Known about the structure:
By secondary structure, the protein is α/β, with parallel strands linked by helices. It has one domain (about 5-205): Rossmann fold (3-Layer(aba) Sandwich). It has helices at about 5-10, 20-30, 45-55, 95-105, 120-125, 140-150, 175-185; strands at about 35-40, 60-65, 110-115, 130-135, 155-160, 190-195, 200-205. The chain has a seven-stranded mixed β-sheet with strand order 3-2-1-4-5-7-6, sandwiched between helices. A hairpin with a 2-residue loop joins strand 6 (about 190-195) and strand 7. Helix 5 runs parallel beside helix 6 (about 140-150) and helix 6 packs parallel to helix 7 (about 175-185). The longest helix has 14 residues, at about 20-30. It starts with a helix and ends with a strand. The structure holds S-adenosylmethionine. S-adenosylmethionine binds near residues 16, 44 and 47.
Amino acid sequence: MDPTLRRQxxxxxxxxxxxxxxxxxxxxxxxxxxxxxxxxxSYCGKSAVYLGAAARECRTVLxxxxxxxxxxxxxxxxxxxxxxxxxxxxxxxxxxxxRVTLAEAGLDEEVVIIVARSxxxxxxxxxxxxxxxxxxxxxxxxVRADFQGWSPHLIAGxxxxxxxxxxxxxxGGGAPFLIFTEALASGAFEPLVEEASLRVLRRxx
Length: 205
Ligand SMILES: C[S@@+](CC[C@H](N)C(=O)[O-])C[C@H]1O[C@@H](n2cnc3c(N)ncnc32)[C@H](O)[C@@H]1O
């Protein structure tokens, strides 16, 4: 991808901004005191580096889940298609890039890679968590399934972080904002941090 286009793209939906990464790291330091961290949507590992570093500081781990076949917007012809990520079978495969990112960051021990659909893993998950970061598919059905599948595993005092929360759907789709407002309205979460399109909540019940 052309570097200029990449920079423009990073200011829009889909790529974590440095300021969001730092806020996520701070959230990981809080959640890591409570329990292990988990993210939905590893992609090539940008957010995993911020959260993995927090996990290391807290002497815990980050579980990072992705089927590595890309979200809707990362498929051929879509805005976030990355030809460099196409595997030998012609399908998107972001797993090799994730492994390089984590190795270069020295986080192989602290970040546990899970290659699977989020819903498959959440159904069988049994470990209480200190942080859940939702950044997988952004369809309403998927974001809702991620919230419903993972938030019950959050320990009280643990952190729920959601990326790409845009009050105006024209800025990048409305599903994460919908789930963010529903989480607040449930009374089970209190708002902690807002940074660009990242929202950080704490479980209070
Ligand atoms: C926006 S990217 C994640 C970006 C990453 N958090 C970062 O900051 O670099 C979304 C990722 O979610 C993954 N994904 C989409 N739906 C998924 C699902 N149901 N289960 C697991 N991963 C999914 C896609 O393969 C894609 O890599």
